[in-house]
Amino acid sequence: MSSQIIPVEPFDYVVFGGTGDLAERKLLPALYHRQLAGQLTEPTRIIGASRTAMTNEEYRNYTLAALKEHLKAEELEETEVANFLARIHYVSVDAKSDQGWDDLKKLLDTGKDIVRAFYLAVSPSIFGDIADKIRDHKLITKSTRIVVEKPIGRDLASAQALNDTIGKVFKEEQIFRIDHYLGKETVQNLMALRFANALYEPLWNSAHIDHVQITVAESVGLEGRVTYYDKAGALRDMVQNHILQLLCLVAMEAPSSLDAEAVRDEKLKVLRSLKPITDGNVEKQTVRGQYRAGASAGGPVNGYQDELGAASDTETFVAIKAEINNWRWAGVPFYLRTGKRLATRMSEIVIAFKPIPHSIFGESAGRIEANKLVIRLQPDEGVKQWLMIKDPGPGGMRLRHVSLDMSFAQAFDVRNPDAYERLLMDVIRSNQTLFMRRDEVEAAWNWVDPILKGWEEIGQKAQGYTSGTWGPSQAIALIERDGRTWHEND
Ligand code: NAP
Questions:
Q1: 92 and 216 co-located in one domain
Q2: Which intervals hold domain Glucose-6-phosphate dehydrogenase C-terminal (predicted)?
Q3: Is residue 263 domain-shared with residue 395, that is, in the same domain?
Q4: Catalytic residue among 33, 211, 242, 358
């Protein structure tokens, strides 16, 4: 089975930070893939913009090098690469001065009214400068949008200030706050599973679900993002955005349609229903951890502070028992965990159903496991429904726990597109369903801020854990205290 590609209308994508890591690793390869898929139409252009002086030709060489570095050789088709490079332009622009802005204006003002998207792949500290320059140089047309990357603030107050800064220049419907987790195939499949099937929704509540687990595990350490990460930590870097967005998609009520406002209204209600975690319960409901030396990918690795080269109490791991104060989810804990240098790179959502109320099978049938729905985001995106079945054969009634396994790579004869590919095109289509609205971002901070304050007030220290494990023992205790266990990687 293959999917249909619907071409998008022509656009100019201006990538501020066109020479940065995000553009090189993600944005340019994602846009090339859309070229390869036949989705780009004439006269689409991609315009790199940053301070470094470069000609168009030099930036095309930079782009080609990025494609060669980050894509497989067989993905680089000569004609398509040439067609893609012909779309690439570059302007040297400084967010902090007038340098280059007239050149950018000249390049953009072609007289054709096509979609214009500004992607801010730069530090949030210059979002405001860029927004102001865009306004001052009259670069906003009827079909202009702006895309901003995380982090959106480091607490509620700074997020509000950043949103105000951008909001002074752009209307909310022009602002696309990207969370690339929402562009993942499986994340959207979660909506399809829940709302395109009659099977799950009647069971999707506290009467039938025992608990939910959301794990976003990385095996890597700091990877160069030292200054940013040490100031942020795992709660700000992963929980405030990616994990809470996943929690919202699991927990929200059925929206009236897939319309962006309908979906985002429902997600917002979930965020506002999260039970506050404050200094009174933060110790019981959360665990902070920091990796020590250990082994990763078979080799020895240093601890966080050695990598950092300084003493630090920043958490590289966090586990939280979250609760949602509404009728659907009362009494159903959502166990959240994320960390660096964990045993493996893996992100998944586990919906753990309640055990059967009574077994008609004798002891010889074996243990009856409760059903689980496992939604795997990475690696190997797919869904597994764990069920009990009879062990085949004439040996009497013996039961076995097996999974109905739907690995997307195997089930569909298509390449699994990177999340950025979909999101970049959604910007052009002006579809905000998979982007965060201002009030969502701020509601998420509103829940995260008291946890940060609680940690500070009670002096909750990051517990050491050996690199290559599943985090501090306190994280295992957090769930085992409730008579549950973290889902094993299967
Ligand atoms: P980066 O590698 O440091 O790149 C920053 C870019 O900004 C460079 O192209 C730089 O080019 C440009 N720049 C800096 N000052 C400028 C100015 N005054 N005017 C115009 N351009 C300027 O950063 P990154 O890793 O790509 O990250 C960019 C943003 O995305 C950050 O907000 C980051 O948190 C976010 N993000 C990144 C990733 C990732 O995987 N890298 C993932 C999620 C979110 P010049 O020096 O030539 O000006």
A1: no
A2: 191-487
A3: yes
A4: 242
The verdict on 46 and 188 lying in the same domain is no
Ligand 1 atom with minimal separation from the 95 CA: 19
pLDDT at 298 over 90: no
- One-letter amino acid at 427 equals V
Contacts of 318 (CB under 8 A, 6+ apart): 233, 234, 235, 238, 239, 286, 287, 288, 289, 336, 337, 338, 339
pLDDT in tens, 308-347: 999 999 999 999 999 999 999 999 999 999 999 999 999 9
Angle (nearest 5°) at CA 201 between 200 and 204: 90
Q: Is the pTM of this model over 0.90?
A: yes
Q: Is the CB of 21 under 6 A from ligand 1?
A: yes
In a domain, 42, yes or no: yes
Task: Tell me the per-residue pLDDT of 152-173, one tens digit each, with 9 for 90 and over.
Answer: 999 999 999 999 999 999 999 9
User: Is 97 part of any domain?
Assistant: yes
End-to-end CA distance of the chain: 26
Question: Cβ distance 114 to 143 under 8 Å?
Answer: yes
- pLDDT digits 0-9 by tens, 256-292: 999 999 999 999 999 999 999 999 999 999 999 999 9
CATH value at residue 78: 3.40.50.720
Q: Is 237 annotated as a binding residue?
A: yes
Is 242 marked active-site? yes
* 259 and 138 within one domain: no
Convert the pLDDT of each residue in 169-204 to its tens digit.
Answer: 999 999 999 999 999 888 888 999 999 999 999 999
Question: From atom 39 of ligand 1, which residue's Cα is the shortest distance away?
Answer: 22
164 located within any domain: no
Which residue owns the Cα nearest ligand 1 atom 12?
Answer: 17
Residues 300 and 206 in one domain: yes
Q: Are residues 105 and 215 in the same domain?
A: no
Residues 207 and 276 in one domain: yes
Number of domains in the chain: 2
Q: What is the DSSP letter of 236?
A: I
Q: Say which CATH number the domain at 251 has.
A: 3.30.360.10
Kindly state whether residue 165 falls inside one of the protein's structural domains.
no
Query: At CA 62, angle to CA 61 and CA 67, rounded to 5?
Result: 95
Per-residue pLDDT tens for 429-463?
A: 999 999 999 999 999 999 999 999 999 999 999 99
CA distance 226 to 397: 57
**89 and 23 within one domain:** yes
pLDDT bucket at 490, cuts 50 / 70 / 90: low
Q: Which domain range does residue 83 map to?
A: 11-149
